[in-house]
Amino acid sequence: MAQELELPRRLEAGTSAIPQALGAMLGVGLFVGLAPAFAAAGPWSLFGLPVAALAATCCAVSTAYQSAAYRGPGAAYTCTRSRVGLVPARIGATTHIAGQVAAMAAIAGVIGDLLVPSSSGGAAAVAVLLAVLAATAGLRIRGRAAWLWLLLTFAVVAVVVAVCFGIAPVPAQPSSPPGPDSAVGITGAAGVLFFAFLGFERLTAPAEQRDRFDWRVVRRGVTVSLAVTTALLGLLSAGLLYQLGPARLALSPVPVIDVLGAAAASDLRPVVAVGVAVALLPVLLAALEIARSTGLALVRDGDLPAALGRRARSGTPYPLDLLVGAAAAAVAQFVDPIPAMAFAACSVLVHYAFANAGARLLLAEERAWPMRAACLGMGLAVVLAMSMPVPALLATLAVVIVGPVTTGAFSRRWS
């Protein structure tokens, strides 16, 4: 068993782990996710941030050890199937793919709203198509290119925060409806904010052997990435809360854009809008890569058609990527980014509840602290998922029922 859990050595010494993880995490959750979080708990949302960060840390630990024990795509699915059972594994896999599809739809929807407000649906579809074409061509944003893209994200956050604190806020109108102001919504806010941390699997559980890193590199990369994401969310929350107040922030579709108008800095809106849209493109590609990993595991086990795993010259499964991209583009046409983000967070939390359960059994006799982290992550995932908005819960429940039934009907295996 000790050999089974031996963690992989880094194969790409010239690639940095930190931009690989951050490039998949700093996206819609950072630029848009604060609005639904404050809608859930008002100023109490700030207490939901460490809860979300803790849940993400536990899930990152679990997926890292699962990836070490079960090499190849969909390590969490394989571990859950081996340790918990086939049906729980299918539930976890289908909710994971559905969550990533919804995440892509949310990202593409924001890009469309920012670049082409009059035809945001078409722009969203084009953004997804570009991501699929880039993946099929084997485009990989690594090294200096990844750092440059991250610098763009940091620059956007720096500009918005400087505007927020550099200009005195306009006093709130007495007629403005009060926002939520209850600690009851902290777990709901944490569930939404958990979306901002999605993407660590790109580092902890890569599908391809060439993307694996040494355990020390993974641990450092995850630690730094989670810390940076938490810091940026906290800093941006403070700035937006100071300038907009909790009620206006809760109602804003894109807070980092709306705050510029509130702070009499409307001249910066086009520049910031383009900056946010461009910064989201690598995140869109990363979500596709993560969905692909679980999808390939289902193809490998016969739960999805083998034709979906057909490889392009670049080595990517282009039929699977096209299917995921088409689903994301369709969702983006009918669902606004914030509801899509809520569903994505809820679905992925259900996935991690099962993934952590598998990791807990995997590590039961091996390591004390990672096993306890898996237990904590499982509990947090359940609590946060149950705290999400009712529409997101109902949509996730539909996936929980339809997903395993569909995959089981295709493979005709139930055990």
From TrEMBL:
Highest taxon of the lineage: Bacteria
Membrane topology: Multi-pass membrane protein
Cell compartment(s), UniProt: Membrane
InterPro entries membership: APC_superfamily
Spans through the membrane: 21-41, 47-70, 91-111, 123-141, 148-170, 182-200, 221-242, 271-291
UniProt keyword Acetylation present: no
Location (main, coarse): membrane
Record key words, sorted: Membrane, Transmembrane, Transmembrane helix
Name the UniProt record assigns to this protein: APC family permease
Species in which this protein is naturally found: Saccharopolyspora erythraea (Streptomyces erythraeus)
